[in-house]
Amino acid sequence: MPTSRLLWEKVKAPSRAFITAHCSRCVKCWKVGSEKMLQIVTDGSADMPANWAEKYQIHVMPLRVCFGEKTYIQDVDLSRDGFYQLVEEQHVIPKTSLPSPDQVMEFYRSIASRGETILSIHLSSKLSGTFDAFQLAARELINEYQIYLVDSGAGSAVLGFMCREARRMWQTGLPIERIIDRMNVMRDRIALTFTVDRLEFAHMSGRINT
Question: Which of 131, 168, 171, 193 is 20 to 30 A from 26 (CA-CA)?
Fold first, then answer.
């Protein structure tokens, strides 16, 4: 599989000269067809301000959340506040349902035209199988798109910051190889710290021992 088409964690494509006739890759430029848009994708584990997805043209594939027999699509029929409300009201341990490779392929095709470049930044593969699902889908679409996958090594706000940085770099005219290099640096340097009200959910999900 050629690395120029599909990049995995810590794999860097060789640098190459990049020339553009535009001062920046702004929305106005790509809308008139001067050059194809870089599509930036992440998953629903990402946290970012409400306006970032539109402002930085970030495509978020929502997670599926299961409460018992009932399945909700994140941010479609279950808000984030609604999620926590259900946890408190139902006393049920929620689970997430991984997207299938076919669902990821459908999502990629819904946001990108054939031949476009996709930068796909996701929740750490050490925390979830989400990255693996996107990886399998990317392999199937290797002849349709140039897909670059980034394992963030983290989640939550880290994904939001990485997506924003990638868009800002692309708008200045930097090539995808430079953007991938920057994503690798951010992954290695950023540490995510958080607190929880109680540990029972982390224990029941297997993320901590007894």
Answer: 131
For residue 77, the cross-strand partners are none
- Cβ-based neighbours of 66, under 8 Å, separated by 6 or more: 72, 94, 95, 96, 97
Of the pLDDT bands very low, low, confident and very high (cuts 50, 70, 90), residue 78 is confident
In contact, 144 and 137? CB cutoff 8 Å: no
The rounded distance, in Å, linking the Cα atoms of 58 and 44 is 11
Handedness of CA 76, 80, 83, 85 (dihedral sign): negative
2.40.50.140, 3.40.50.10170, 3.40.50.300, 3.40.980.10: CATH of 19-62+100-204: 3.40.50.10170
Amino acid in position 128: S
Burial status of residue 154 (CB atoms within 10 A of its CB: 0-12, 13-18, 19 or more): buried
Confidence of residue 192 (pLDDT cuts 50, 70, 90): confident
Mean pLDDT within 79-98:
84
> What's the one-letter identity of residue 152?
S
Inter-CA distances, 79 with 44, 72, 92, 105, 114, Å: 12, 9, 17, 25, 32
Q: Is the pTM of this model over 0.85?
A: no
CA distance 52 to 43: 14
Q: What is the pLDDT of residues 195-207, one digit of tens each?
A: 877 787 777 666 6
State residue 18's pLDDT score. Answer: 28
